[in-house]
Amino acid sequence: MNGIVLVMVSLAFVLAGWRQLVWVPAGGASAPMELLSKAMIDAASGAVTLAIGLVGVMTLFMGLMKVAEAGGMLRIIARLIRPLMIRLFPDVPPEHPAMGAMILNLSANALGLGNAATPFGIRAMQELDKLNSQPGTATNAMVLFLAINTSSVTLLPTGVIALRAAAGSHDPAAILPTTLCATIGSTTVAILAAKLYSRWSAAPPPLAAAGTTNGTPAPDSHAVQEAPLEDQGQPYPLWVSSVALTCLLGLVPATVLYGQAISPWIIPGLMVFFLAFGALRRVPVYASMVEGGREGFQVALRIIPYMVVILVAVAMLRSSGALDLLVSLLGRFTAPLGLPAEALPMALLRPLSGSGAYAVLASLINDPAIGPDSYTGMLVSTLQGSTETTFYVLAVYFGAVQVRRIRHAMAAALTADLVGVICSVLACLALFGK
After folding, report:
1. Which end of the chain is more exposed for a tag (fewer CB within 10 A), N or C?
2. 300 with 58: CB under 8 angstroms?
3. Structural domain total, the chain
4. Membrane-crossing residues (predicted)?
């Protein structure tokens, strides 16, 4: 990460400096270096505002996660999906709470619940860090989990559908099939890339090699005492896991058909379900929520320095004109392939800046010359709904567990982003033409 940030900042400085040297004042316009300075200050302030904005959501959902953890829900979920998860994450003990937290995170992402997915993902990273023999260095499981997150397994892109409806689209949900195709492609490649690149990046040794027994970390002072001892036994029969996986796969057609109707019920339903589960397992739900919420507040503050550094570097890159230069160079080559120059900024910005990509999407689909139902409107909507802001996810998830050496995480995530763009173009060409 050190080298990536250095390259981004240096490139932005050089380009802005060159533009400053050839700049001719006109009409009271600000100088390039002045714009760069303003972008840096605004991004630093915006990063803190964004992190503080996460405090409430983090407090709520980390509190719910604490109830689920105390009631043994994470272990139950891990046992249900064990056949799949042990193949994806062989370094994680099959019934470790990290398994359940990862499944909750991926499920929330799939349903478009970004606010809920982030706290679940941070909890998963915290649990994975308990298995880390070298704190500060990402493990293979951390990298794979983050790569899957940046590829954004999305069944219901609620935010994009709402924006398309506001722009006057005749069929706001028309992007569901293309989004699904793109996210399946990018997620598949994210898994393959993380597995492949791990061969060329030395991983921390398994925790069992660092002095623990059977891969189980020693208890720590912050661990929650889980109520149900019966959940520590053998995995469920294969048919039970098969039914659970079938139900998960059944979310795909159900979401496509009924997603808009059920989406307003999901977050309230989650809260009722978690609290009812905790009460049935004799968990003190109020005390557990308060304890977990306190932890969420601390995590939100802990990630601020990481977010400031990443978002300032991205803002410098945008303000310097580096992205505009890249668009002008690539646009003539990508347009014949189905990625018009108008949509190219979206493809380039999406991994870098969520707000920037959202602004590009809004401006394009509200442009009368393009509109939400044109090929370009469908493509940029698919790009927004099928991928995640890679640099933001890196900053938040790794920042929450103080990881500085990210190994091959960036390479795997950007590979998945590239494939997500390619799959989006192919899906839109197949369904909507040019």
Report:
1. C
2. yes
3. 1
4. 43-65, 103-122, 142-163, 175-197, 238-258, 265-283, 303-327, 377-398, 410-432
Q: Does residue 25 lie in a domain region?
A: no
Per-residue pLDDT of the chain (434 residues; tens, 9 = 90+): 677 789 889 999 999 999 999 888 877 778 999 999 999 999 899 888 877 877 887 788 778 878 887 888 767 776 777 777 888 999 898 878 888 888 888 877 776 666 667 888 898 999 999 999 899 999 999 999 999 988 877 777 767 887 888 888 888 878 888 888 898 899 999 999 999 999 988 777 766 544 444 444 444 434 444 444 344 445 666 666 677 667 766 666 665 566 567 667 777 887 898 899 889 888 898 998 888 888 777 777 878 888 888 888 888 988 898 888 888 888 888 989 999 988 998 888 888 877 778 878 888 898 888 999 999 999 999 998 777 888 888 988 999 898 989 999 999 999 999 999 999 999 999 988 76
Q: Which two tokens stand for residue 363?
A: 């401006």
Q: Which domain holds residue 42?
A: 2-14+31-209+229-432
Kindly state whether residue 217 falls inside one of the protein's structural domains. no
| Relative orientation angle of helices 375-386 and 176-197, to the nearest 10 degrees | 50
Contact 362, 145 (CB under 8 A): no
| Widest CA span in the chain | 75
Residue with tokens 């036994």: 233
Considering the domain boundaries, does residue 37 fall inside one? yes
